[in-house]
């Protein structure tokens, strides 16, 4: 039965605490907590009581249902207005996960969210509402999930600052929603924002890290507006793919795309049937790797060397010359580059290329270009000095 989260009575159920402390069904490691709960409550030490409850909820022996649910129903809800409301929301979120029935978990969190919906606790309200939206999504209520996302997004926009746990909840649920809708670019954005709010090594299990890295990789490859994987490639979570063994080829594929390495892409295509959705989108992936190759080709050139012959583009992208114009026009329409096409001279004159997050190899290439530029500047300086020595006479 879902708890009555709206109830708030400032006294404890002494029978519950005494029974739990004495019961043979209560794990021995948890029994001291019930005595401590009573002592802290009687002394009205709400902060210390909250910390002790959080410690209890994190204890491995409290994870077996319905231990946490009973603690909330018979104890926490009776003084819920006395403690920090964001911490109350966090406690409620942990308890909700103990319900085996998602519908009961949803009912629990919706009641809690209603209780938290006041001007002074909007951050806690967002936290509870987004976690309720998680269960709505599990129950197939996509519309209800989207409504919660929109409502919470508007509330968060009004905050100057908010606890990272609230943002983490928001971005995680938004990511799950877009994953269910197969909106790759939106999933990619929200999932990376979620990872920015958590400690990947502490907050995610090994399995969760691999799954998150896998999903991010798929969304990066299939997102029709994602043409720079640098942020993902530099993120620690990507190492999970290599360690898993199962998905190491997927990591290699990402690096091939980011470098626009068509040869490497072709070498990895035999792995695509392992991910049916990638195999089904092979034509799109081929076009995307050609666009990535074009971007890389432009990016590695000096600003004064970006008038590129169609034949050169064809050679670098491994496309027939008569398909180059369409490829460049596609890149222009996606705002990956700016420039003009000269059909008469068969030239693409590129004036700008989309800024990128660089991987280590690209940073090294940029350093080489910078060193070459510095060398040229020194050579010009030396030449001018030799031609007009009178300008360089020391005082």
UniProtKB/TrEMBL annotation:
It comes from the Eukaryota. It holds the Pfam family PCI. PROSITE patterns: PCI. Signal peptide: none annotated. One of its GO terms (molecular function) is structural molecule activity. Residues 186-355 form the PCI domain. Keywords: Proteasome. GO terms for biological process: ubiquitin-dependent protein catabolic process. GO terms for cellular component: cytosol; nucleus; proteasome regulatory particle, lid subcomplex. InterPro entries: PCI_dom, PSD13_N, PSMD13, WH_DNA-bd_sf. Belongs to the proteasome subunit S11 family. This is Related to 26S proteasome regulatory particle chain RPN9. It comes from Ustilago trichophora.
């Amino acid at each position: 039965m879902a708890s009555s989260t709206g109830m708030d009575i400032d006294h404890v159920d002494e029978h519950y605490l005494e029974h739990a402390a004495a019961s043979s069904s209560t794990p021995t490691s948890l029994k001291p907590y019930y005595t401590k709960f009573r002592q802290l409550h009687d002394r009205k030490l709400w902060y210390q009581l909250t910390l002790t409850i959080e410690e209890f909820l994190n204890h491995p022996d409290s994870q077996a249902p319905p231990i946490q649910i009973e603690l909330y129903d018979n104890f926490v809800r009776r003084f819920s207005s006395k403690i920090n409301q964001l911490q109350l929301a966090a406690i409620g979120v942990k308890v909700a996960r103990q319900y085996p029935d998602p519908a009961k978990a949803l009912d629990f969190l919706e009641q809690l969210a209603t209780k938290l919906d006041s001007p002074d606790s909007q951050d806690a309200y967002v936290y509870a509402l987004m976690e309720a939206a998680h269960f709505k999504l599990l129950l197939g209520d996509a519309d209800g999930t989207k409504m919660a996302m929109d409502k919470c997004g508007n509330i968060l926009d009004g905050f100057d600052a908010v606890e990272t746990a609230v943002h983490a909840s928001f971005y995680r649920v938004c990511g799950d929603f877009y994953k269910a809708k197969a909106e790759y670019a939106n999933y990619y954005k929200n999932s990376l924002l979620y990872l920015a709010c958590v400690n990947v090594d502490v907050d995610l299990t090994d399995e969760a890290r691999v799954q998150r890295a896998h999903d991010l990789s798929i969304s990066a490859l299939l997102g029709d507006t994602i043409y720079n994987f640098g942020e993902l490639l530099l993120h620690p979570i990507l190492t999970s793919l290599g360690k898993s063994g199962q998905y190491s080829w997927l990591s290699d594929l990402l690096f091939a795309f980011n470098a626009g390495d068509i040869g490497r892409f072709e070498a990895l295509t035999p792995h695509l049937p392992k991910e049916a959705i990638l195999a089904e989108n092979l034509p799109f992936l081929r076009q995307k790797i050609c666009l990535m190759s074009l971007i890389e080709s432009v990016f590695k050139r000096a600003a004064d060397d970006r008038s590129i012959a169609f034949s050169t583009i064809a050679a670098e992208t491994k496309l027939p010359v008569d398909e180059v114009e369409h490829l460049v026009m596609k890149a222009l329409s996606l705002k990956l580059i700016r420039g003009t096409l000269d059909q008469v001279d068969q030239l693409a004159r590129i004036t700008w290329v989309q800024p990128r997050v660089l991987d280590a190899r690209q940073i090294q290439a940029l350093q080489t270009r910078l060193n070459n530029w510095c060398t040229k500047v020194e050579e010009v300086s030396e030449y001018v000095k030799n031609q007009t020595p009178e300008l360089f006479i020391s005082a």
